[in-house]
Design a protein that fits this description.
This is Calcineurin-like phosphoesterase domain-containing protein. Pfam families: Metallophos. It comes from Durusdinium trenchii. The protein is an alpha/beta fold. 21% of the residues lie in helices and 20% in strands. It starts with 8 loop residues before the first strand and ends in a 19-residue tail after the last strand.
Length: 256
């Protein structure tokens, strides 16, 4: 058994999707200390799972930072269209909208305030560390990355074009990323925990009954993400499958 690093960390949590019980389990397993640790989410705090409002309230209670995931982004865009059902653009179904009906207006305002990308404050890291929900396109500056890719990218096709599909033909985007930023992301539960030289993917399918994962980074981190060890990860098993199931293809699983 491995044990989490002592407090004084940036705790980056993968896709929660409204699974508040699992989030509380993960914070306990990682020995999260609100006055010493900083809490960060890779997006998709809401959508699919049973308790999105409680997840948002936990995040705000601990003054967490986060980026918007595709679920926040799409639901916020729908609200800007008037929150009408049926959705004129066909993106938001009635059952899906019902999962977030318990969110208060100030909680929507907080979600609206979240950026699409976030650089972590790790001054001793040999390379900058960026959090995005989905991915980045190599060769494009951070400032010029398209919002659609920041919240939806999973793969490239055979011709190198960005795709939100898992099996586009050219492999996952993180395999192609060579910096200069190191990236922590989510969004890709089918691939599970991903560890590439310049990117780590934390979506391990909690809402599908698999795991919820966190990355534990000391605030004085002085190594690259490629050289993290088992104690830099915490993971808990989901209590239940809240939204179907996925077939895991690959992924290194490290449990606390």
């Amino acid at each position: 058994m491995t044990f989490p690093l002592p407090p004084g960390r940036v705790v980056v949590v993968g896709d929660v999707h409204g699974c508040s019980d699992e989030l509380k389990d993960l914070l306990e397993a990682s020995q999260f200390h609100p006055s010493l640790d900083e809490l960060v989410f890779v997006g998709d705090l809401i959508g699919k799972g049973p308790s999105p409002e409680e997840v948002v309230r936990i995040a705000r209670k601990y003054s967490a930072k986060a980026v918007q995931g595709n679920h926040e982004y799409n639901l916020l865009q729908w609200r800007k269209r008037g929150g009408i059902l049926p959705d004129p653009e066909g993106r938001i179904k009635e059952r899906y909208a019902a999962t977030v009906k318990g969110l208060e207006e100030d909680e929507w305002d907080w979600l609206e305030s979240l950026p699409l990308k976030l650089q972590l404050d790790l001054p001793q890291s040999p390379l900058p560390v960026m959090v995005v929900h989905a991915g980045l396109v190599p060769g494009v500056s951070i400032e010029q990355q398209e919002p659609e890719n920041l919240v939806n990218l999973r793969s490239f096709d055979h011709e190198g074009r960005a795709s939100k599909q898992y099996d586009a033909g050219g492999g996952g985007w993180a395999r192609h990323w060579r910096g200069p930023m190191q990236v922590i992301f989510g969004h890709d539960a089918r691939r599970g925990l991903q560890r590439e030289p310049f990117a780590i993917g934390l979506d391990t399918g909690a809402v599908y009954g698999d795991e919820l994962t966190a990355l534990l980074l000391p605030k004085n981190l002085d190594r690259s993400l490629a050289h993290l060890e088992p104690q830099h990860f915490a993971q808990v098993r989901a209590r239940r499958a809240s939204f179907g199931q996925i077939q895991r293809c690959f992924g290194l699983i490290i449990k606390v």
